[in-house]
Design a protein that fits this description.
Blueprint: E1 3-7, H1 11-21, E2 26-30, H2 33-42, E3 50-54, H3 62-76, E4 85-90, H4 95-105, E5 109-112, E6 115-116, H5 117-126, E7 144-145
Parallel strand pairs: 1-2, 1-3, 3-4, 4-5
Antiparallel strand pairs: 6-7
Length: 146
């Protein structure tokens, strides 16, 4: 089973994302960017298949954390399949600002909040996570999560 690190300072968002993703992946959580960087650096080799990173958080914001993770990967000589897939999640409404932030920090994609279950699953699937998006569980997959 693939491993996902969910990074968000909101307990409710972490719980919502875990509920969406736990049927298809092993979920781990961090409450801020610093904790995420520490978790990634603590293990030898690639410890997660994907990181879903909030942008605005206390202690260390998501964009700074992504930059540090990308630098760490370079220091380790990781490239290609050895690098983490990182998707930022943000409440920024201007798509051009989101794309600039994504490019500048080195993220692979973004998800705008509020998001639907289908949006999360499709974005992760588009970025290499093996997910069966036809599963619906007990929830309507169009429910919005903020």
């Amino acid at each position: 089973m693939q491993k996902i690190l969910i990074v968000d300072d909101s307990a409710s968002v972490r719980e919502q994302l875990t509920a969406i993703l736990s049927p298809v992946a092993e979920c781990h959580v961090a409450v801020n960017g610093q904790e995420a960087v520490d978790l990634i650096k603590a293990k030898p080799g690639k410890s997660f298949d994907l990181v879903l990173m909030d942008v605005i958080m206390p202690e260390k914001d998501g964009l700074t954390a992504v930059k540090e993770i990308r630098e760490f990967e370079k220091e380790k000589g990781w490239s290609g399949d050895n690098t983490l897939t990182i998707i930022i999640a943000t409440t920024i409404k201007d798509p051009s600002r989101i794309l600039i932030a994504q490019y500048e920090c080195g993220a692979d994609a973004y998800i705008a909040k509020p998001f639907t279950e289908e949006t999360v699953l499709q974005t992760l699937r588009n970025n290499g996570l093996k997910i069966d998006t036809s599963r619906n569980g007990n929830r309507d997959n169009q429910s919005q999560w903020s």
